Amino acid sequence: MVTYFLNGGLTPMSKSDTFPEDSGTITILSSSEYEEYFQETSHYRVLKASLSHIHYCKADIMGSFITGTFSIPFRETQPEGGSSFAFCMTDSELIFIDNQGFTASVLKQMEEYPFPDTRSVIHFFLAFLEYLIKDEALFLQHFEETLTELEEKILLKNDSSFNRKILQIRKKLASLSSYYEQLQDMGESLQQNPFIKRDEADKPLFGLFADRAGRLYSNVHMLKEYSMQLREMHQTQIDIHQNQIMKFLTIVTTIFMPLTLITGWYGMNFSHMPELKSPYGYIIICVLSLLIILVEIWLFKIKNWFD
Q: Sorted alphabetically, which InterPro entries does this protein's record hold (predicted)?
């Protein structure tokens, strides 16, 4: 268990520290610790069903408290599969239930983070939400750069693993799209919630967070469309390449079709075919075949079949 109190900032609190008056507390617990300390509380009964399978971000308004969950998509600095945790918030206390250590690492980074109201749990929770998405624009820019590189490789026709890469990117973008949309819904719920009615100035702040999450969602949607366009461009390149192969095979077949006719005609070996006994028959057929090939090539050039 890790405990912080809000008194001029986010301050770690040890067992020997005296709890300051009028200061909010932030506590990080594992699911077993939460069950041990809060089993008899009403918010435990609400959260109990969600702790074992957290798959999305949400905030549920329950009158005197707010409960919810976070499911954060995978990052390089997070465990495989992403991070998930639950929370419960009252006027004076915010409890995180986290078995993966994600919130502990975030709060450690936020110890020097400036807060608009250093004693308000609501303001801290807003700052926590903002901290979660503060670098998301740069993170999405990485996806855009990756897609741009893929586009260049498509044009250069030197990426044989395009389908696998674009599939991985689209899966990540789909996960991020759902994540940002859920954060937007959470911000809108907290903005309209009567739980913060006494702090009217906080409502626009949660609205600003919802707008920011909405813009991230729009960026992801744009990247998803970009990836779809790249997929279509790649398929177009494949179609063009296949058409070129078919065009080449068509030209070769067309060139040799009259030669095949001549070969089949004189392959009948009837005894009264005069050309078979002519001393110049072979030369005549060779010259005729060469003339036919030259005439066909000339016609193909006129019709731009070699372009």
A: CorA_cytoplasmic_dom, CorA_TM1_TM2, MgTranspt_CorA/ZnTranspt_ZntB
Pair (16, 104) in one structural domain: yes
pLDDT single digits (tens) 68-98: 899 888 776 555 567 889 998 888 888 999 9
Q: How many domains does the chain divide into? A: 3
- Domain termination site, one of 244, 266, 292: 244
User: Is 100 found in the same domain as 156?
Assistant: no
Give the pair of three-digit tokens for residue 84. Answer: 């998930």
Q: Distance between terminal CA atoms of the chain?
A: 73
Residue 252 φ/ψ region, left for φ over 0, alpha for ψ in the -120 to 50 degree band, beta for the rest: alpha
Element housing 161 (H / E): none
Q: Give the residue from 66, 136, 77, 125 showing the smallest Cα distance to 102.
A: 77
Q: Does 209 have pLDDT greater than 80?
A: yes
| Interatomic CA distance for residues 157 and 169, integer angstroms | 19
User: What is the CATH number for 206?
Assistant: 1.20.58
pTM, two decimal places:
0.71
Which CA distances in Å does 61 have to 155, 162, 179, 194, 226?
Answer: 52, 45, 20, 9, 37
pLDDT per residue as tens digits for the range 98-119: 988 889 888 888 877 666 555 5
Residue 224, domain extent:
134-244
pLDDT for the residue 74: 75
Q: How far apart are CA 51 and CA 69, in angstroms?
A: 8
pLDDT band at 222 (very low <50, low <70, confident <90, very high): very high
Sign of the dihedral defined by the CA atoms of residues 32, 36, 37, 42, in that order: positive
